[in-house]
Amino acid sequence: MESEKYFEMMLDMYYQYFDLYENEEVLGREFDLYAFLEVTNERFMGVKSIKIYQYNDFEHSLVEVNDEFSDELIDDSFFSECIDELIVPESGHHQSFITYIQIVGKPLTSEEISLVENYNYSTSFWLGIRGWCDIRLIVVETNNWQVYANQAGEEVKENYDPHMLADHFGYEI
What we know:
Elements: H1 2-15, E1 19-26, E2 29-45, E3 47-66, H2 76-86, E4 93-104, H3 110-118, E5 122-124, E6 132-141, E7 146-149, H4 162-169
Parallel strand pairs: 3-4, 4-6
Antiparallel strand pairs: 1-2, 2-3, 5-6, 6-7
């Protein structure tokens, strides 16, 4: 029940800025939610017809709701395949994030928390000339409303805080 409530709060959070696809299949695996965001940044000189530069940032969020934590996808080969399928490092690509969010009902063990917090995967394209991609891991425990993240995920961890989401969107937790 709590996991479904949190999932609804996440839908509200993503709704304004992301393209949302529920029950979407990525690499043969069905996710409860796939959310996609593209942000284009441009700088002009004087008028819009004189563009100095343009670059694009992307975020791909893969959300799973599970009864208990699963480390099945916390694997370099899975995320490498995700990058190959989801990221197109063309000219103007600056950075991409693949954010894997797992919403779980049961508490994590200290080993599982350590696995999440110490996971690191990043890759660059054309030695960084065409940008890079970082993997963010977020695990939300709904029985005690704890959020765990890897180093890349720490940047956005507070956005996934259940108390902040509940206050912002008017939910009771």
